[in-house]
Amino acid sequence: MRIASIVLAAVLTLMLSVGGCTRGVDEEAPGPTAPGANSQESTPAPEPQQTQNEQPEPSGPETTNKPPMLTTSQPIQPSKRTGYFGASSHRPVFSASGPTAPVATQMRKIIDCKGKFYTIEGAVKVSYRGNCGGLRVSGDKADIVFEEADSIEVQGSSNKVVGDEAAEVTVYGDENEITVREQISKLSVNGDNNTFSSTETPKNLTDEGEGNTFDW
User: Fold this and answer.
1) For residue range 64-123, what is the model confidence (pLDDT) as tens digits?
2) Is 181 among the domain residues?
3) Is residue 24 part of a domain?
4) Domain count for the chain
5) Are strands 186-189 and 204-207 parallel, antiparallel or unpaired?
């Protein structure tokens, strides 16, 4: 009986020791595993959500706020003011003129001589047409134009006398300008500082003044 109890105790002790070894093996940490075997699968990041201040991008072609082009079926006409090439092709049109301001220059008077003799006084502008029997300039600063004259007599000063043909010219004043295109038959100068011009030298010239200039 005592032997049977000892054997039973030995069997129990052996069983307990075997069970502890088995439990230790089962609780041992697992060995290394293949990379990625126990890793968790990565999940895609959530897409950013559109805020209230952001505007959606247009999906269609880019557009701009250009004004619409005007089309016409009518041919382009040149401008009346500038023409085709920018230069004026038409004369300007002026509106009705208002009151005319006084003009300092004097209009030239035209007289038909008809063989008569005329005396010119003052600073006037006169043109004598045809043949004149004679012209006498008694004033100053006159502007005289003639075609033909039998005689020219200048008594004043600072006068301008221009003609085509004169048979005889006599000058008593000073600083006059005398021009006769054709040859003068007789030229007599008694004043000073006068200027004479012609295409030919006079046939008869008398100069009793000073500072007179002759250009033939």
Assistant:
1) 555 555 454 555 454 444 333 344 444 444 334 444 334 334 688 999 999 999 999 999
2) yes
3) no
4) 1
5) parallel
The token pair that represents 72 in the structure block:
């016409």
Distance CA 25, CA 38 (A): 22
Kind and range of the H or E element at 150? strand 143-154
Distance CA 180, CA 6 (A): 182
Q: What are phi and psi of 162, to 5 degrees?
A: -130, 130
Burial-class residue 71 by CB neighbours within 10 Å (0-12, 13-18, 19+): exposed
What pLDDT digit, counting tens, does each position of 27-72 carry?
444 454 444 444 444 455 555 555 454 455 555 555 455 555 545 4
pLDDT at 55: 52
Specify the 3-state DSSP secondary structure of 122: coil
The SS3 of residue 188 is strand
Is 127 within the bounds of a domain?
yes
Q: How far apart are alpha carbons 42 and 34 in whole angstroms?
A: 17
2 token code pair:
């005592």
Give a yes or no: residue 187 inside a domain: yes
pTM: 0.52
Q: Tell me the C-alpha distance between 17 and 12, whole Å.
A: 9
